[in-house]
Amino acid sequence: MSQYPLNPKLFDDDVEQEPIRNGFGRGLKRAGEEDERVVALCADLTESTQIEPFKNAFPDRFVEIGVAEQNLVTVASGMAMAGKIPFASSYAAFSPGRNWEQIKTTIAINEQPVKVIGAHAGVSVGPDGATHQMLEDIALMRSMPNMIVIVPGDGLEAEKAALLAAKNNKPTYIRLNRPKVPIFSTKESPFEIGKAYILRDGRDVSLFGTGTLTYQLLAAAKILSSLGVEAEVVHVPTIKPLDESVILDSARRTGRAVSAEEAQIAGGLGGAIAELLSEKMPTPLMRIGINDRYGESGEPDQLFEHFGFNGDSMAQKVVNFVRNTAQYHRYY
Amino acid sequence: MGKRLSIDELNQKANELRKDVIGMLNAAGSGHTAGSLDLADIFTALYFDILKFDPQNPDWSDRDIFVLSNGHTVPIQYAAMAEAGFFEKSELNTLRKLGSRLQGHPERVKLPGIENTSGPLGSGLSQAAGAAYVIQYLDKNKHRFVYTVMGDGELDEGNIWEAAMFAGKNKLSQLIAFIDRNNIQIDGTTEEVMPLESLKNKWESFGWFVIEIDGHNIQSIIDAVNMAKAITNKPCVIIAYTIAGKGVDFMEYDYKWHGIAPNDDQASDALLQLNDVVEEEI
Question: What is the ipTM of this complex?
Answer without folding.
Answer: 0.95
